[in-house]
Design a protein that fits this description.
This protein is an alpha/beta fold and 290 residues long. The chain has one domain: Carbamate kinase. Strand 12 and strand 13 form a beta hairpin. Helix 8 runs antiparallel to helix 9. The model has no long low-confidence stretch (mean pLDDT 90).
């Protein structure tokens, strides 16, 4: 072995040794990861995400993956000759559109995420909020059609899979008490699931570096924030529009038992590992108290 190769091997060993305290801290804990954006659409990043999720499971962490699929829904709608319509950033979802949502999220995206993870270990199990009443919803606004707000998460279904050392991968379609399917905001679902599970962490993979004090000034990136600071950021209207559902879900989750929330740049290779297993971390971490 050459000197260069020995040095490289030594560096890798040092990285693994540095990760040990974090592995010990989070072993046996549940982490909810909301997966989407470029991290999902790039084949290379999707494969790295799958590797990271499997590694987390192998070192004793219990990852739960929650995904949306807005671009995939829009693409399928247009291929079927239906133009998307939005009101205040939410997709108007009539009877035809909810069928398309189910096809895109449950029939395509969920299966792709499950298959990607299972290429690196047979752990992932695909679920929809329709399965065994996992996500019960109420209608948000009749003007939006079949768009729902989370009413209840049947956490026992997820917990049984975790006990079997499996990785739940959840598509964000829910049902009302009559069994009607609804489209739901994936950021909100991730927060609700984290609350229901009493998760150690709630993680959002996004297409930006984290939370900015003055959107979109990248120099104003906030690396650490407490709940009061997060709520002030929301009330001041300084958060970017696309970040608001994530921040609101983070705040609600932290008020209801989740210990930490993280907003990470999913475009960075191994974003999850960098945040979980290094002292530097990346993105923005939010805690109840600083």
């Amino acid at each position: 072995m050459t000197v260069d190769r020995i040095a490289t091997a030594g560096e890798k060993a040092a990285i693994l040794a540095d990760a040990l305290p974090y592995i010990r801290e989070f072993s046996g804990r549940t982490v909810v990861v909301k997966y989407g954006g470029n991290a999902m659409e790039s084949p290379e990043l999707a494969d790295l995400f799958a590797r990271d999720i499997v590694l987390m499971r192998l070192v004793g962490i219990n990852p739960v993956v929650v995904h949306g699929g807005g671009p995939q829904i829009t693409d399928l709608m247009r291929r079927l000759g239906k133009e998307p319509e939005f009101v205040d950033g939410r997709r108007v979802t009539d009877a035809e559109t909810i069928d398309i949502v189910r096809m895109a999220l449950v029939g395509k995206v969920n299966r792709e995420v499950v298959a990607s993870i299972n290429r690196h270990g047979s752990y992932a199990v695909g679920l929809s909020g329709e399965d065994a009443g996992l996500i019960t919803v109420t209608q948000r606004d009749p003007a939006l059609g079949f768009v729902g707000d989370v009413e209840h998460i049947e956490a026992g279904i997820i917990e049984r899979l975790i006990r079997e050392e499996l990785i739940p991968v959840i598509a964000t379609v829910g049902v009302d008490l009559e069994g009607q399917a609804y489209n739901i905001n994936a950021d909100t679902v991730a927060g609700a699931i984290a609350e229901a599970l009493g998760a150690e962490k709630l993680v959002y993979l996004t297409d930006v570096a984290g939370v900015y004090a003055q959107w979109p000034d990248e120099a104003s990136l906030i690396s650490r924030l407490d709940l009061a600071g997060l709520e002030a950021l929301l009330s001041d209207g300084k958060a970017g529009e696309g970040m608001i559902p994530k921040l609101e879900s983070c705040a609600h989750a932290l008020r209801n038992g989740v210990k930490r929330a993280h907003i990470l740049d999913g475009r960075l290779p191994h974003a999850l590992l960098l945040e979980f297993f290094t002292s530097e971390g990346i993105g923005t971490m939010v805690e109840v108290g600083s």
